[in-house]
Amino acid sequence: MSAEELKLLDEMFDNCEYQDSLDMIQKLSDQSSCEVKWRLARTVFFLSKQSTISDEKEALVRQAFEHATVALATDGDNFGANKWYGAILSEKAALDGVTERIKQLENVQKHFQRAVTLNGTSDPGIWHMLGQFHYKLSEVNWITRKLINSVAPNPPTASYAEALDCFSKAESIRPNFYALNLLYLGKCHLALKQPADAKPWLERAAAVEVRCEDDRICRDEATELLKKL
User: Fold this and answer.
1) What is the predicted pLDDT for the residue at 146?
2) Which of 81, 111, 129, 153 is least buried, going by the fewest C-beta atoms within 10 A?
3) Which domain of life is it from (predicted)?
4) Which domains does the chain have, with CATH numbers?
5) What average pLDDT does range 200-209 have in this prediction?
6) pTM for this structure?
7) Is pLDDT of 153 > 80?
8) CA distances from 48 to 19, 61, 64, 111, 123 (A)
9) DSSP assignment letter at 156
C-alpha cells in the first residue's frame, strides 16, 4: 500500500466510483492496515446508499460497520477511522431500532468530535457529518425528545444554528465539495426563518450534476423546497 494508492482511492470516492474503489481495495496487498480498512468501510457504506433493495442495503451497512470497527480497533487515534465509525454507527443503530439509535447518539457524537480534533481544519466532510447530527437532532418532535432524555445516559443537545455553523465551516474549507452540504445550508436557513438566505443555496443544490444517489436526493429535495418559497 502506497500513498499514491490511497490518493487514488480517495479520488475514486470523490468521483462516486464506489465499485471501482472496492475492486481496487480487494486487489491491494495490504488490506489489514487502518488506512485501508476505513476506506473499505467508507466504500461499502456508500455502495449501500446506491442500493434500492432493502435487504441488500442493510447487509452492506452492517458489513461496512464491521470494517469500521476493525479500523478503529487497529488505531483509535486515526482520523478516518473515527469519522467513518461515527457515520456508519449512526446508520447501523437506526437499523437496530429507535431505542438503539438513541443509545448511540452520544457515542456517534464522541467519534465525530474526536475526528474534528484530529483533522477538523482540513477535512470538510467531518463538519458536514456534525452538521447533519445537529440538524437531525434539532428536528425531532417532543415525543422523541422525551424518549431521548429517558433513554440516553447523557443526551446531547443541538440547534439549527449549530448545524448551520458546521455546514458553513465545511463549505469554507472546500466549496462545493458535497452536494448535500449545499442542500443542508439551505434547509438550515429555512429552519431559522431566513428564506432569502436559503434560496441561493437551494438553487445551487437543485442544479447539481447527478452522479450518485446523494446527488439525486439533493437535486430533487432542493427543487421541491424552491417551489415553496
Assistant:
1) 84
2) 153
3) Eukaryota
4) 1-120 (1.25.40.10)
5) 97
6) 0.92
7) no
8) 11, 6, 9, 21, 23
9) -
Question: Whole-angstrom Cα distance, residue 100 to residue 15?
Answer: 33
Residue 82: all three cell numbers together = 473515527
Contact 185, 132 (CB under 8 A): no
Q: How far apart are CA 156 and CA 77, in angstroms?
A: 23
Give the C-alpha separation, 206 to 200, whole Å.
10
Q: How far apart are CA 128 and CA 193, in angstroms?
A: 21
Q: Where are the alpha helices (DSSP H) in the chain?
A: 3-14, 18-27, 34-50, 54-74, 79-95, 98-103, 105-119, 124-138, 142-151, 160-173, 179-191, 195-206, 213-227
H/E stretch holding 158: none
Instruction: Give the C-alpha separation, 129 to 135, whole Å.
Output: 10
**Rounded-to-integer distance, Cα 220 and Cα 203, Å:** 11
Q: What are the cell numbers at 163?
A: 448545524
Residue with cell 427543487: 223
CB atoms within 10 A of CB 46: 20
Q: Give the angle subtended at the CA of 139 by the CAs of 134 and 142, to the nearest 5°.
A: 120
- Report how far residue 87's alpha carbon sits from residue 177's, in angstroms, rounded to the nearest whole number: 18
Task: Give the closest residue to 116 by CA, choosing from 137, 130, 132.
Answer: 130
pLDDT at position 141 over 90? no
Extract the C-alpha cell encoding 105: 447518539
Q: What is the dihedral of CA 201, 86, 209, 206, to 10 degrees?
A: -30
Q: Which three cell numbers stand for residue 66?
A: 464491521
- Give me the pLDDT at residue 1, please: 67
